[in-house]
Each structure stands twice: as C-alpha cells, then as structure tokens.
Input
Amino acid sequence: MYANKIKLIATNKGIGVSNNAKIVANHDISINLNGDLINKADLISNDNINIKAKDIENSGNNDKKAIVKSQTINLKADNLNNKNSIIQTNSKLTLKSNNLINKDSIIGKDDLNKNTHNDIKNNNNNKNNTNNSQIVVKNTILNKNSKILSNELNLEINKDIDNKNSNLNISSINNKLDNIKNSNTNFIVENEVNLNLNSLLQNSSKFSSNNNLSIKADSDIINSHNSQISSFKNLNLIASNTIKNSNSKLVSNGDINLKSNYLYTDKLISSNKNLFIDSKKIDNLGDIKANDITINSIFLNNELSINILQQFRY
Output
C-alpha cells in the first residue's frame, strides 16, 4: 500500500489489524485500534508514524525483519513485543508500554542500510530535529540479542531490566527501579546515572556512564565473570548487603566510593583520584589502586596488593 497519508481507525473493542504487506506513506501513518496490531512487514513514512493499540507485535523472521521506520515514531500499547524487527527513527521516538520484549531486534538508531529498503529518501531538512526521545515502560524490559541505540534517548522504567547478549546506548535512565540484570551486555549511559534499586547483577557485561555513576542497592551489587562497572567521572556504589567484584573491574577517572556490609574483590578496583571504602568486612584478593585510599572496616583481609600513589588511611 502506497499513499501520501494513511489513517486507520478501529474503535470497536477487540478489533485488531494484521499487516503482512508493505505500507509506505510520503507523509503520516496513523493507526488507532481498540485491539491488537500485528505487523509482519514494513510500516514506512517520511514524516510521522503514530500507533495506538492494545498490544503491538512486530514480528519478522531470520530472512526478513519487520520494519517500522520514520522521521518520528510514537507508539503506545499495553504490551510491545518485538521479534526480528527494527524500529528506526531519524529524529524522535516515543514509546509507552506496560511491558517491552525486544528479541533479535533493534530500537533507535543504527546503520540499518543492509536491512532496510530505499522506498523513501531521507529528508535532510528534517523539521523534527528537536529530540526528546523516550521509552517509558511501566513494568519490565526484556532485551535479548538486541540493541537499544540512541544517545538522545531517555529510558524510564518502574520494575526490571533484563539484558541478554545485547547493546544499549542511551542518554539517561530514571533513578528508581527494581532490578537490573546484565548478561553478556554492553550498557552505556551518556549522562549522569543515579539509581535506587533492589539489586544489580552483572555477568560478562559492562555498565558505564560518561558522567557520574551512582547506584544504591537495597540488596546486592554483583559484578562477575569479567564484567566492568565504570564512570568517566565519579563512581559511587552502596549496597545494604554485598558488593562482589569477582574476576571483574570497578574503574573510574574520578573518585570511587564503596559502601556495603561486605566487600569482595579479586581482580581490580582502580580510581584515578581518591578511593573511599566503608565496609564491615573486606576480602581483597586482587589489586586496589588509587591516588589516595581511605578504608573504614572492622576486618580487612588483603592477599594481593593495595597500591597508593600518595596516602593510605585505615
């Protein structure tokens, strides 16, 4: 289907749409449903795509991904399920959902030339350059073998993020959620991060901020199996129970502040400035490096090295 503008409205309860063919518009595509939208093909616009439905499913396959592509995209649904799909915007993305499942898919901006078709030329004189892109998820995000990419994208979530074999590069993340679980994942936040959560669990993953990174966990912060938590400025980690840095790294160009009931580390804690550790029990089987180190602890077990350029206080 090709047209200048496309508008589809179905207000009767339970009425949905299944799209198995290409829909292309020079201008807007607008879809408003009281039922579900199942897209197994392409929805492409040179201006805006606005979709409101009960549930939205973008479902492609290994040979051909389902594509939603436009200058600006606005999606609102109870549940958004992406499988083998691409949601690509050249300017602004707004996605609101109770739950987001993203499997073998891409949301945001990426080099997608090999996956998309040149049905419509990009407009370099984009009238929607002001970007306040956001993904708002009320409950959980499951991101598996996928990418969420845009350093202009704000992520807001209330409960859990579960990332597996994935890449996320976003502008910001809200400050309160339940749990973050990263497995074989690269998670980069461009701006300052200040998180209050139940736990952070990392396995073979990198979680970093290009500004300050602060995490306060009601339970544990686990960084394991060649993982890394890092910040370009200061790194602050507070856990009510345990900070475990197993075969992994905690690294900062600024100060590092660690506070927990128990701290275990067996590879590297490294600050280019000052390191402050406040923990009742500390087991160090690795390297701890900083310009100035202050440790407040009842029990310190040091089996490898603490390297100080200037001053050490215990």
Notes: Residues 131 and 175 are 21 Å apart (CA to CA). The chain is about 0% helix and 65% strand. Confidence is low (pLDDT under 50) at residues 111-130.
